Amino acid sequence: MNAPRTNLPVDPARIAALIDGLAAITEPDRPYTRRAFSALFPRGRAFLADRFREAGLETRIDAAGNLIGRRPGLKPGSGTIMLGSHSDTVPDGGRFDGIAGVAAALEVARSLADRGTALDHDLEIVDFLAEEVSVFGVSCIGSRGMAGVLPQEWLVRQSGGLTLAEGIRQAGGDPARIAAQARGDIAAFLELHIEQGPVLEEEKFDIGVVTAIAGITRIEIVVDGRADHAGTTPMGGRADALAAAARLVTGVEALAKSFAGGRFHFTATVGEFSIEPNAANVVPSRARLLIDARAEERAMMDLFANSLDQMAEQIARETGTTISAPRRISDNPPTPADPMLVTVLDAACSAVDASHRRMVSGAGHDTAWMARATRSAMIFVPCRGGRSHAPEEFAENDDIALGAAVLLHAVLQLDGDLQKAIQETA
Asked: Exposure pattern of 226-260 as b/e (b: 16+ CB <10 Å)?
């Protein structure tokens, strides 16, 4: 991160005002909490819609509940360049997560208007509905809907007597039309996001150009032992489910560290753990683990899963327990960024003199779903200490503004390059 730049083609003050305005719309005594489908979410959306209109954008909400601001291009039918992220938050944290991307995207539209620059392509700024895990237990609802991959069975999921379909309708969408609104006009999608990790700050880079979003696989393992009296059952005669599960936990950590030592991104975490009967004087009879594993390369995930199978079989033999075959309860493959867009973003960083490095995102983003529908890529800006999903989450406004300048240059280059790419592949 360099000293603040004074010659950027964007207005940092407008970016800060948008972020601060949304930050003020929060639950009392819960900093930066504005979850999708909550009573506060429409207030945030109304604030954003007003800013979109002030920027001269034609504003609407699509069938999936996404807020969209459109700036028409000079050549109708050329397609749409889309920028954006999300404005919903996790509980108790999220002043910049997603919101920085919406603010930067809107600033690109404002800066183009300031310069009197007209694009051949339409430009759309989007605030996706419910990127974070919602009260319905699912995430990236708006981007999945726009990409045409929102599962129909999700629409009947309920929370507090409300179905997801009703929630989308309350957000201004039309769930009955989601499948029919498939967008074939989006020529490219770009998203700015805070890194949510420490790499850029520690290595002193201004921008991270994301080459892939790691695939996320969640694996459940159940260990069955035998309940016995904790005081009278000899140590050598037990089938302790917790002791066996503890070996699995440390084994997962060791496996993940060995996989992470190479050139590709890999993590694995036992994020959920429970035991039965959970009594101080009873040998545990059952334990359940849920593993969150993330890999840049699919082959690494498959190798990890195979190693986990072998580990479970060995621990079961040595502990006298029964360990279920590790079960993948969700399994999303990695999403590579579009190579052309990555090259454009590299060039845009150089154009504004932003130091940058290529990197992998270990977190999921709306970009992963937009990549199902169009060319997609994203950039990261640093966040303090790598902290995110916490009240302490913070990003310097100058860093976000520099990222917005990168997006602006990328859009200007894409406005010409996309037509060339289409002609070359025709």
From this structure: bbbeeeebeeeebbbbbbbbbbbbebbeebbeebe
Domain boundaries, the chain: 12-213+335-425, 215-332
- Residue 342 exposure: Cα atoms within 13 Å on the Cβ side: 14
CATH superfamily label, 12-213+335-425: Zn peptidases (3.40.630.10)
Contact (Cβ atoms closer than 8 angstroms) between residue 86 and residue 383: no
CATH of domain 215-332: 3.30.70.360
Q: pLDDT tens, 146-170?
A: 999 999 999 999 999 999 999 999 9
pLDDT of residue 132: 94
Of 182, 154, 181, which Cα lies nearest the Cα of 168? 154
Model confidence pLDDT, tens digit, residues 299-310: 999 999 999 999
Which 3 state secondary structure label does DSSP give 85? Answer: strand
What does 135-168 look like in DSSP terms, one character per residue?
TTS---HHHHHHHT---GGGGG-EETTEEHHHHH
What's the rounded Cα separation, in Å, for the pair 89 and 134?
Answer: 9
